[in-house]
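Backbone geometry:

***
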Amino acid sequence: IEFVDETTGWIGGSNGTLLHSTDGGETWSKENFPSTDNIRDIAFRGRLNGWILCERSQYQRPKGVSRSYLMETDDGGLSWKKSEFKATNEPLTRLLLTKNGEGRVIGEGGMISEFPARERAEKRFSLPVRYLMLDGTAFENGGLLLVGGGGTVIASDDGGVSWREARFIGLSPSVRLSAVSFVNENRGWVVGDNGTIFRSMDAGRTWQSAVSGTSANLLDVWFNEAGVGFASGDDGIILRSLDTGRNWTLEQSGTKHRLERFGLAGRNLFAVGFGGTIIVRDISSGVRKGNREVDNK
């Protein structure tokens, strides 16, 4: 899920399913997207320019063709053009838009690459790990931070030329880390399997664990500047924190479906996941006002 602003949003899923909202997520319409492959991620820079990461079936993929590719629009989704990555068997998982206008994609085998484009050759960079990378963030100063399998948290201060491993205070993670969220240059959170949650107050240099109160796999995390945050995951679980992630409480999501991603439109936080599930919560205050499902035409 990706919101360009308070009114314009996109949701991607399996079999090329692409939903579009122009009313802040109150209603969603299905787009005529020119692909039936699974959508792994969506990234937009403004209303017009956007990229969708697609993944071909491993068993139906033509020989010598990469498992993943990009679909790009420069007219707000009215038309899409395909760009291929160098042929590789490894799936790609997430798109990152850096603050200087560059696009990066991460994936399996410790892979990070620039977005392919017709006017230049694709450029790939080496990472110090071979784990599957699952999420990342790009800082204003050009730095990058990535998380993934094997408890990996690595950061770069020079746009990906060199990398350093994060330091953990006390317990170090060994499970898969699925998502990372930063609200500014300093404060960030990471979540992963078995209810794993870590928080950092120094730009991701050091991390300290928090007690989540669950053993469910957590798939995404979101915070605002006021220190109010949510984590989502398997079995419809949603956790809430009111104190920058020190303490967490369980909320009733109203669904047992796996909740994979968060997206914010104004004061409404959306969670989307398995089975076409879309739920939304008003986060304008720390008091729970209830979740509700939205219209998916």
Remarks:
- The CA atoms of residues 228 and 242 lie 5 Å apart.
- The radius of gyration is 18 Å.
